[in-house]
């Protein structure tokens, strides 16, 4: 009897594994070529327009690919709004503080629905949009062909987001475990963390850094952050010191003045900042505390072109994280914020 149930369990496991693999392998580059020709251009046009108006939207999209795909796979579960039926979806989780670009995705979905009703999933739109944002923010250095054919998920729970996504207070062991659970290596974790070259964070996301010792954060930078964070209950601060306002830098870290840039840019500057102890989050600094991770921080500081390529590959890998197999019936949502039966 024991044997039989063990065999049955093994068969179920194999069937599930095959189902997951099949799901992932069904993704195809050019998936909508026949059913919705030109859809990728439509997405790109809207993303480019949005970034022209506000470049910060680019960072928001790059973050969304991570926050969607790490929880239940890339199924647009992060886009679902609270409803009476489901009052606490993923986007209400503390770890999802500051997520943005939802309005842009609504706008894109609506344009795509006008063109091809009921055909293109929000999950695919999110991947296309994040891919395009990465590309536009890096002048095309970050790029990949995005396979598509995902379905939108029907479930979204804050508790799952809180469980599956890394917190900025994590130590290096917790970070490694967190990425390992999704089959990402230490190297890939370091590569993906380079996304913190762009965008912003709330002071509450790095409060403990304001009193961290000088081995962990450059005192002048700590002073800059403390000044900014004193300006309100929970202000936002730019992730990359190079995007700071020159006056603030002149007053606090003048040695960084020549490194300021005119435009926010997705490049390997995160690794240079990290080695100089000028990064916002504890999780960023933690990468220097473990031999392999630290080695990769040096590697990508030294080779920006390699980072562009490896970051593109890692985003592509993220985009292939499959929908959870159990109970994961999918659909093409009409609106990205609500399941169709709502
Ligand atoms: C290694 C673990 C990671 C941790 C602990 C972490 C944590 C955070 C935190 C706390 C914020 C600021 C949220 C806020 O206060 O508003 C943030 C912002 C951001 N994260 Fe991460 N993150 C991680 C990895 C990643 C990855 C893998 C990506 C993408 C590939 C990413 C992309 C971003 C971007 C682009 C922003 C700026 C968003 C914006 O400006 O709207 N992060 N992250």
UniProtKB/TrEMBL annotation:
Signal peptide boundaries: 1-24
Residues annotated as binding heme b: 196
Cofactor binding, per record: Binds 1 heme b (iron(II)-protoporphyrin IX) group per subunit.
GO terms of molecular function: heme binding; lactoperoxidase activity; metal ion binding
Catalytically driven reaction(s): 2 a phenolic donor + H2O2 = 2 a phenolic radical donor + 2 H2O
Disulfide bonds: 36-116, 69-74, 122-336
UniProt: Ca(2+) 1 binding residues: 68, 71, 73, 75, 77, 90
Predominant location category: secreted
CDD domains assigned to the protein according to its UniProt record, in alphabetical order: secretory_peroxidase
Site (Transition state stabilizer): 63
Subcellular location: Secreted
GO biological process, any: hydrogen peroxide catabolic process
Enzyme Commission no: 1.11.1.7
Cofactor: heme b; Ca(2+)
Active site: 67
Keywords: Calcium, Disulfide bond, Glycoprotein, Heme, Hydrogen peroxide, Iron, Metal-binding, Oxidoreductase, Peroxidase, Pyrrolidone carboxylic acid, Secreted, Signal
Chain residues that bind Ca(2+) 2: 245, 267
Function: Removal of H(2)O(2), oxidation of toxic reductants, biosynthesis and degradation of lignin, suberization, auxin catabolism, response to environmental stresses such as wounding, pathogen attack and oxidative stress. These functions might be dependent on each isozyme/isoform in each plant tissue.
PANTHER family: PEROXIDASE (PTHR31517:SF84), PTHR31517
The family this protein is said to belong to: Belongs to the peroxidase family. Ascorbate peroxidase subfamily.
Name of the protein this chain belongs to: Peroxidase
